[in-house]
Specification:
heterodimer; A: 404 residues; alpha/beta; Aspartate Aminotransferase, domain 2; 2 domains; 4-stranded antiparallel beta sheet; B: 132 residues; alpha+beta; Sufe protein. Chain: A; two-stranded antiparallel sheet; 6 helices; 2 strands; globular
């Protein structure tokens, strides 16, 4: 049983008023709010047990190192990785993808190869591959999606070939909400000998994720979208792959033997965690993932799917509203346009009604243009979203329309 | 209308709804911009909507024409032009635009974190005052 009222009480910011109105926060896809357990954990660490990690011959450092490594185990459990050695802490998902591009990519891609991505990628899973292509000279292929935003097997298979060395796609589009059939895509990719990277930023927030079952080679996601702190992200990689990759950055905490002449590097994951890491943020992320697992990912998924269907129905009531991205089984992300109303104007009025939505290209400018627009408004749901959020939002849209 | 008259009119508007309707009305009344100016050259960067601003100089006075594809933003542009138009460069630099927007109760639109381009636009105006 998903106790939504109690869940909402776990997020103190939801109780504050915005412009004298109920806080109707519909921008969780950009960054999610934090539950009290995460806030408490952060305060607790700074109050009682802060020190640097992996240094310690003293109590505080030992304590915090154990907390930090425990957070890694929590991530391992959250995505069901085989070992915690497969979990690399990064600054965010963008850094996780860049890390793969500039270590695995530089070592294993040649100009004879192809990298395959979809039309629905966030800039973070597009620009790094463009930059690497310019450097190495491989071909960057982009498979088409259907006009309603849904996945197109034919287009995917058309571009997947023996030349494909890597498929890098979003698990769930941050603009369209489309959820890709990852497991089947991965097995087709493996059949042609390609590795598979999932940009899991949206996917892991809303779905139970099992990297062993999916059999993906890499998975990147960010902490702040999974109800954890900013400044922390995760790269999962199969251990053999990580172990074959050179370091990404150089400095302390990632080395084995250092002399003035030469250095040997530590094994993963510490090989990829140069310097003092985001200690408290990693521990905060651990607390956030524990929180989600306690609620149960399947329960979160079911709650959000119900609310997604409700939102979809209610959006249809708004005359002139175009929902962009209507794929079957989509997640709780709603990009839309109201005919005759600029998204920016709409956002001004929604804000006065206490409703937070995002406006613009959502860091996926080519996708927005491919769907035929320059700018869209987007409302997105989180595990704490409820029917009243949707109702307030729809009422605010109806009100906004009277201005234009 | 002068900016003083606008401030007076605004005093009669109690709710944000009435203020926004008034701002939209100002936007609708703004003279249309010739299509040849709808180019990147005249675009003000850093906005979630498109904003264009074109400066002209007559004698020692500067005046601007502007436009946006968003209506509330266009109304805000009308107010900005009311504040700055037909002034000399030194007069432009002396204007405390924040105070005027505070009097209008529209201060939040000038905040640097609001990426609606209004702040970028006032900065661009000051830049033109410097170089023209």
């Amino acid at each position: 049983m998903y106790d939504l009222l109690s869940v909402r009480r776990d997020f103190p910011v939801l109780a504050r008023e915005i412009n004298g109105k109920r806080n109707t926060f519909l921008d969780s896809a950009a960054s999610a709010q934090k539950p009290q357990v995460v806030i408490d954990k952060i305060v607790d660490i700074y109050t009682k047990s802060y020190a640097n990690v992996h240094r310690g011959s003293y109590q505080l450092s030992e304590e915090i190192t154990s907390e930090y490594e425990q957070a890694r185990k929590t991530v391992q459990k959250f995505i069901n990785a085989k070992s915690e050695q497969e979990i690399v802490f990064t600054r965010n998902a963008t850094e996780a993808i860049n890390l793969v591009a500039f270590t695995w990519g530089r070592k294993f891609l040649t100009k004879m190869d192809e990298v395959l991505i979809s039309e629905a990628e966030h800039h973070a899973n597009l620009v790094p591959w463009q930059m690497l292509r310019d450097e190495i000279g491989f071909e960057l292929k982009i498979f088409k999606i259907k006009d309603d935003g849904s996945f197109d097997w034919e287009e995917y298979c058309k571009l997947l070939s023996g030349k494909t060395k890597l498929v890098a796609v979003t698990g769930m589009s941050n603009v369209l909400g489309t959820v890709f059939p990852l497991k089947e895509m991965i097995s087709s990719a493996h059949a042609v000998g390609a590795k598979f990277l999932i940009d899991g930023c949206q996917y892991v927030v809303h779905h139970p994720t099992d990297v062993q079952d999916l059999d993906c080679d890499f998975l990147a996601f960010s902490g702040h979208k999974t109800y954890g702190p900013t400044g922390i992200g995760v790269l999962y990689g199969k251990y053999d792959l990580l172990n074959a990759m050179p370091p990404y950055q150089f400095g302390g905490d990632m080395v084995n033997i250092v002399t003035y002449q030469a250095t040997t590097f530590d094994v993963p994951p510490s090989r990829f965690e140069a310097g003092t890491p985001a200690i408290v943020q990693a521990i905060g992320l651990g607390a956030a993932l524990e929180y989600m697992m306690n609620l149960g990912m399947i329960n979160i998924y079911q709650h959000e799917q119900e609310l997604t269907n409700y939102m979809h129905r209610r959006l249809k009531e708004v005359d002139g509203l175009i929902e962009v991205g209507t794929a079957e089984g989509k997640g709780g992300v709603f990009s839309f346009l109201i005919e005759g109303v600029h998204p920016q104007d709409l956002a001004f009025i929604l804000d006065k009604e206490g409703v937070a939505v995002r406006v613009g290209h959502h860091c996926a400018a080519p996708l927005i243009r491919r769907m035929g627009y320059e700018s869209l408004a987007r409302a997105s749901l989180g595990l704490y979203s409820d029917q009243e959020d949707v109702d307030t939002f729809i009422a605010a849209l109806q009100k906004a329309k009277t201005f234009f | 209308m002068t900016i003083e008259e606008l401030i007076e009119n605004f005093e009669f508007l109690d709710s944000w709804e009435d203020k926004y309707r008034y701002v939209i009305d100002l936007g609708e009344k703004l003279s249309p911009l010739d299509d040849k100016f709808h180019t990147d050259e005249w675009k003000v960067q850093g906005c979630q909507s498109q904003v264009w601003l074109i400066p002209n100089k007559q004698d020692d006075k500067i005046f601007f024409i502007g436009d946006s594809d968003a209506l509330i933003v266009k109304g805000l542009i009308a107010i900005v032009l009311m504040i700055y138009n037909h002034k000399s460069p030194s007069e432009i630099k002396a204007i405390a635009v924040e105070d005027i927007f505070a009097k209008l109760g529209l201060s939040d639109h000038l905040s640097p974190s609001r990426r609606n381009g209004l702040l970028s636009m006032t900065e661009k105006i000051k830049y033109y005052a410097d170089i023209l």
